[in-house]
Amino acid sequence: MLRFVQWLGHHSLSRIRAAGRxxxxxxxxxxxxxxxxxxxxxxxxxVYNTGTLSLPIIMTAGLFxxxxxxxxxxxxxxxxxxxxxxxxxxxxxxxxELGPVVxxxxxxxxxxxxxxxxxxxxxxxxxxxxxxxxxxxxLKFIFAPRFxxxxxxxxxxxxxxxxxxxxxxxxxxxxxxxxxxxxxxxxMISHVDWYDDVINGVIKSVVFALLVALLSLFHGAEAVxxxxxxxxxTTRTVVQGSLGILALDFILTALMxx
Amino acid sequence: MDVHIRVENLTxxxxxxxxxxxxxxxxxxxxxxxxxxxxxTGKTTLLKLIAGQLTPEKGRVLVDGExxxxxxRRRLFALRQRMGMLFxxxxxxxxxxxxxxxxxxxxxxxxxxxxxxxxxxxxxxxAVGLRGARHMMPSALSGGMARxxxxxxxxAMDPDMIMYDEPFVGxxxxxxxxxxxxxxxxxxxxxxxxxxxxxxxxxxxxxADYVYxxxxxxxxxxxxxxxxxxxxxxxxxxFLQGAPDGPVPFHFPAEDYKKDxxxx
Lengths: 258, 264
Prior knowledge:
The structure holds two protein chains of two kinds.
Chain A: H1 2-29, H2 33-38, H3 40-50, H4 55-77, H5 86-124, H6 127-133, H7 138-176, H8 181-191, H9 194-222, H10 227-256
Chain B: E1 3-14, E2 17-28, E3 32-36, H1 43-50, E4 58-63, E5 66-67, H2 73-80, E6 83-86, H3 98-109, H4 114-127, H5 143-154, E7 161-165, H6 173-190, E8 193-198, H7 201-207, E9 210-215, E10 218-223, H8 225-229, H9 234-241, H10 257-260
Parallel strand pairs in B: 3-8, 3-9, 6-7, 7-8
Antiparallel strand pairs in B: 1-2, 1-4, 4-5, 9-10
Helix pairs in contact in B: 3-4, 3-5, 4-5, 6-7
């Protein structure tokens, strides 16, 4: 019993300490962010690394998710003779939920883990220390461009995911199952609201991007400089990032669509 | 004597372990000063303290009369532009090739034209004998070459001083010879103050002007190479000769052996 209390205390304390360090990290990173806008070349390189290189997985996943939505939606809606609504259903699920959430989940696995590993290794090979010694602030040179790149890129990826999803739904519903094309699009256009659905989805993915960027950079910076330490840090990024995205999604949905 | 770096009553602790206990030393300008001691005595930590990457618990470090740990970040960075540091691993930026690594500090801190930067970089690379390797990536370099590139990078900004963290560790005899010569040559030709942290006794004694032997957080012995070589301090003797047992015991502090084995 005493052991358990001790264990509980130790773990809670170390969690609280970690949260404090995360806060401090964010606090020291914020003033460095504007600097990344100045260094366009550095920023573009990170936009390419995190964004462009994530495109294949995001596009493929979006297409398949849309196709599944089209198929499932059709199977349910056809019983009520309203299979034309499959376009609306696909688009709403994508723009409101699946686009931002699934894109963020894929992104944290594809790009977030890579960022953590990269920075963890930079730390263990003393590159961060060397930058400091060359009077170059790693916060400005390494962290800020990566943070900003993630925040720029993830909302775009989420929109691309949704767009490809709508295309997937269209291919299945109209091309394969024979839903009327005009009804498919016109219903979608009249039921999907630009602000309520699309913009809210974008806001969601901006929030997820902030979370993913913060976690992946923080865990990279905190990684114990051994191979095991870097691998643990990468795992933490993906686990905390995924759970954080899902939890935040619930909160945001409750706030936005209630 | 013109003192370049002055370490005064420095105390530094890592967790419960005291790394330095009231350590004081002076590094004269323009000389090669060796700081020797067994592994784990905090030699690298000392360099990081001098560079202001770590903050001491007590005491201060003066570089050119400026208290490193009281400078604003901006002033500290300005001071660091006059310091070079060679890391044990080289610490080259892995996404840049040799040329860009050496050009990096110039591009970050100066507004020189690309043309001029190219000439400067080639001169620095020539000094370490790697002008021909300018297009190689760090991953393709051997350990010794990486260290030489890092050395070219460290002198890119023409610093007043350069700190070497274990420059000879893990190198083959030829590379070791190259590095030893380079340290001495750069010191003379660029008029640098060189601080060499090392435990490679013979190599260091062959180039140093002045030697500090530190252990257990304090200076155990100091003097010119002559003085250190002829020291009759048992600790210094053990260190220079590499005797496995002596004032520095073979065993890490532990409980009584018999008790540990459960024999009494």
